[in-house]
Structure prediction request, 338 residues.
Amino acid sequence: MSEEDQQHFLDVMMGGLANDDSSVGVYATRPEDYDIFSFYLEPLIREYHKIEGSTKQEHDWNIPVGEYVLTKIDPRLEKVSMRARVARNVKGFNLPPSMDKAERIKFENKMVEVFDSFGIPGKYHSLTPGHKNFISDKEADELRHKHFLFNDMTTDNHLTSSGVASDWPFGRGIWISTDETKMIWIGEEDQLRIISIVQGNDLGQVDKSLHDLLTGIEKSGLQFAEHQTYGVVTTCPTNMGTGKRQSILGKFPNITKQGTDEKKLKDLARSLGLQARGIGGEHSNMDKEGTADISPSARFGVTEAIVTKRLWEGLIKLYDLEKQAGEGGERQNCCIIQ
Ligand SMILES: Nc1ncnc2c1ncn2[C@@H]1O[C@H](COP(=O)(O)OP(=O)(O)OP(=O)(O)O)[C@@H](O)[C@H]1O
Prediction:
């Protein structure tokens, strides 16, 4: 390996070397890392995604609207906060761990041009000092409170030690559609996180909203970085494949014993192929009602449609366990996050 590659390899491993609590401990710094360091990254991707034999990532957004309706699980799941996001990076740019300040700003400006012309009404809010769309800390916190905007990245050791959070807050921001159901993060763990949040009960509805947004961006001519085997290229190998994470915010007071036993819910979720996170995203806590963000773990070797199906099937089982955990098999109120 050349000296230059050795340095890049060290950069890839930096997040894990600096953080004992890392689960994967690896961030790609450039799309080509997945080929140059495949001897290291391929086994890791296979193990994480439990892939045996040869798998080539396929895409399928054919998600039935009207089929995965949460009120079929429980009529009280009427107004649930549903979220779906995909991670994307654009061809020709480094991945966030190795972007410098100038490249981050250049990327943000390129995206502002897309937002000005891609046809979905909305507004861009920038965290970059001096940007024409700059928002104050107070405004940024209001957007965080609504679960729209990502946190200050410098508070996360994994993001700082790997370089993902470098040059904060330059080149960072969020585009939000006028109806506040669609949003795009700029400059977080991936260059783009394309997101939809819908309050409702049909999982297909949030997928459709996300897919409309993604298609709109693709039509703008932006070309995403793709790998011939692993699908969309993402900074963290755990997101490779579809880059899709789909979740609902649900209340599980019985399983979590009023939020005092988060581990119980996390373990049960894991056994169902799901992940349970706290109310404010990864590494956050649940509240006294055991409110958790539930999403399927799989991103690679499954299609976008399968991710939704897995969430649906997992929720049927998880809500049944919640019911069983309650006194007399009764489930308390479940879902509305205001
Ligand atoms: N169903 C949901 N409804 C509303 N907000 C949600 C929902 N699920 C997650 N969120 C919010 O989205 C934000 C981002 O969460 P988080 O960082 O865990 O996930 P992510 O964007 O998918 O990225 P990553 O998996 O890389 O951490 C948090 O504020 C979280 O509370």
